[in-house]
Amino acid sequence: MTDVLLIDDDELLRGTLEQGLAQHGHVVRTTGDGAAALAMIAAAPPDVLVSDMLMPRTDGVEVLREVRRRWPALPVVIMSGGGMMPQADLLTMARALGATETLTKPVRIAALSALIDRLSKREAAGS
User: Fold this and answer.
1) How many CB atoms lie within 10 A of CB 20?
2) Using CA atoms, how far apart are residues 75 and 50, in angstroms rounded to an integer?
3) CA torsion, ordered 60, 17, 91, 55, to nearest 10 deg
4) Considering the domain 6-80, what is its CATH architecture?
5) How far, in Å, CA of 11 to CA of 16, rounded?
6) According to the model, what pLDDT value does residue 57 have?
7) This prediction's pTM
8) CA nearest neighbour of 77 among 99, 54, 108
9) Which of 34, 36, 30 is nearest to 14 (CA)?
10) Hey, which of 5, 8, 36, 86 has its CA 20 to 30 A from 14?
11) Are 80 and 54 in contact (CB under 8 A)?
12) What sign does the dihedral 13-76-94-101 (CA atoms) show?
């Protein structure tokens, strides 16, 4: 089982992804806040971090920068549906900041689960 930390400020989407990933056999912890996520990672690092890009207060950019500084080997998947900036630009920025993978919203749960499986296997092989 892969331990996943999921960050998204959209409560409905967060719950849907949490339930779907759990059905695929993942252990999922969630939060809607980037600062809370960083505290959760410090307390118990997940196998894979999945984060929205645009969130109030501490956004995905800040989370990604801090994760790369403190936990450089942690696989990070950044998701975005766009917003004020075109979606492709946000995901390009996330890759430039060190995201392991990026996904466009809406996210297919089966595809996200398969990506998490692949990243956790790669992480396990590298440790």
Assistant:
1) 17
2) 9
3) -30
4) 3-Layer(aba) Sandwich (3.40)
5) 9
6) 86
7) 0.93
8) 99
9) 30
10) 86
11) yes
12) negative
Give pLDDT, residue 90. Answer: 82
The answer to whether the CB of 42 falls within 8 A of the CB of 66 is: no
Q: Which amino acid is at 37?
A: A
10-residue mean pLDDT profile of the chain (127 residues): values are 96 97 98 97 98 89 96 96 70 93 94 97 69
| Domain range list for the chain | 6-80
127, burial (CB in 10 Å: exposed 0-12, middle 13-18, buried 19+): exposed
Q: How far apart are the first and last CA of the chain?
A: 17
Q: What is the pLDDT of residue 16?
A: 98
What is the Cα–Cα distance from 14 to 123, expressed in whole angstroms?
Answer: 24
Token pair 């492709």 is found at 88
